[in-house]
Please model this.
Amino acid sequence: MKNIRNIKKRIIAFLLIFCVFALDFSALLSQAAGFSGGLNGITGGFPDVQDENISTAAEALRLMGVLDGYEDGLFHPENTLTRAQFCKMVVNFIGADDELERYAAFTIFPDVKPSHWAAGYINLAARGKKIIAGYADGYFHPEYSVTLGHAVTILLRLLGYQDKDIGGIWPDGFIAQARSIKLLENIDRNISGDDNLTRGQTAIIFKNLLKANNSAGSALFNLSEETTLTSLDGGAKKMVTSDKTYDMDQSRDGTFFINNRGRVVLRDNNALTFLPVENANITTPSSGAVMISSGGANSSAALSALTGNRTGYNIYKNGLPIGLSDLKSGDVAIYSSISNAVLVCDTRLTAYYENCYPSPSAPSTIELLNGTVFNVLPTAVDSIARFRPGKVATFLLSADGQIAGAISDDGSGNAIALLDSGGAARLICGTTEIPLKASSSNAINQPVNIMSDEKNNIYFNPLRNNINGDLDLNNKTLGSRKLAANIRFFDGDGALSLDQIEKSVISSSEIQGVHINWAGDIDFIIFGGNAGSVIRYGRAVVTVQGADNHWNDNDNPDYAGTYVRMLTIVYGDGKSVGPAVNPIRDVKDGEYLAVQLNRAGDRYTSIKTMRKLENISFDSWVGKTAVTYGNRTYTVSESAPCYNRDTNRWVTLETARAYAGRADLYIADGAVRIVEIGEQ
Model:
């Protein structure tokens, strides 16, 4: 028993190391890959931003914690904002988020109940700051897009301007006033008050707001003297300039403005963000990607050009830290200026070239795999132009899923896709997963090799195990092969975390498939049907088998006859284990449990209740990967299912967040395993 406990401890330690790395690298990507398709000026904050004004504004607001990129690492400047999202931006901008709790528990507008994710922000803006109102019907309509007229009205009220003091007809009078104080500087004059604001336009307006004066002529924020930004240390919350070291209001890292002139934006002597001087000659990295032509130390010059000769950067390949010696010919590298990291991807997709836009000689997008649209990096245009739709080629992809080049089909395709329970596929590029229009009814809930050789003819080839030897989780080996630090496990029900695997040693015969990465290590393992029992986390469904069901006053079944309580654990839409005989008589229907099922599938070898954290706000989450509660941080399992008790349905985490502002969280083995929402 002692030996088993020690093995379990070592397995858990291995899992924790992997989770920490996964969280760190996930955060790195969520700050956005720091290259852009732009050719001139200030680019580099987000891959999809080419406009200089939007790029600097987006980065200034990111450092301030007002507006972030999406989970795919992009900014999506053309997306519009809802009224609820705009309220959140305003509250974060003025640093009033500490007032949210007292405004989140009541209803001002009938369509913004306390369960709405933005209730605190909307109520605070409406009643606390009195800068926004509802519609004539008495509703707020939080899902409506925010228009230019609405936005400038809110921001002018924030600056202390009274509606009665602004002449003209709404919204024209407000727009004219906003232009007179340069709030709409660098915003197209042809935009009307009824036009929906994009994220890019909103970022520019909020950047202008950083420099604005209020109605009394006083500055909204204090600005330092012009200085040079030398470093940002998010961990220590320090912003260092050539003149002074400032305490930062937010724990944010970034290298985008490093070594450039500008002013520090201050609140109560704390640094909020950095504003470069207008028309600054900001040093930026290369726009686009570099395809490594010769590996090892010979790649140093290529990376210097990619990073703009910056130093101290880290290199990650498919999510793992590497050195120059690990770079291979054909690898694709992009640069993240925000995290000062080179992100390398070795994904090569052999596929039928279906279509392109606008032309084969100068494509900005191409279509592969049943009409999935891929962006073509500017640096890849000449390479792609050698091919025409109707042909098969091998496409080299960057870590954020863009086409970085193409070569003739030479048999080097290595693309991996993940199939979910419905057969929908997601292509893996480094640590990014790209939804595909292609799907398969075979090999679901696992990774597969993917390629196509003609239109609508796509191959999803299951991974096979051609390695001799057992899987040893204690030594992190499979036969003579090492397990990669970012190893992922799968079985017939989908992804498994390491702590769900019951045994520390599993026979090679129980392993259905493996994948070997660029370093010769194993990064995917698929278990067969006899891999042994695993832990499942889910909702108890208790049934009774037998006739004439009898119950006593304590709501327990009468076992005097032939009546047997059966327990099924449901852990998602259409996902369950059991039913099996329940060895614990007091399990209640609807209870959340962690269970282990034996190989025969007729009895649970272990049943444990899960710890419940009640009524936890989604705003307290650290992104979607962790929750801090009671001075402890719990990781959120990648596969954590969500149950809506109002509708009795399993939903996605994104749907759960949109439905409710709070949730009950069920904890097991140091992680959030189940999320439950609803008002019942």
Observations:
- Residues 80 and 198 are 4 Å apart (CA to CA).
